[in-house]
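U., I forgot to send this yesterday:
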Amino acid sequence: MNAPGAPPRASAFHWTQLANGGALLLLAALALAGARACPRAHWAFAPLVPPLLAVAALAGWGAAVQLSGGARMDDHPWV
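Result:
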């Protein structure tokens, strides 16, 4: 337990963050590849491009969060 007034200890990087971040990065890459391939396959697949780009952006964001240490919900003193 930390003494009062001492800064909180940083938690160690856990292997699950690497696994989750890698999986989300793979999902982002696959969604981006799908967004590029859809209009090339047939013009009727063009409406799938915006949702695939949204998935790629959100998965990339999630991968960045996981690979940078994960979201910490208790990093504010008033929480």
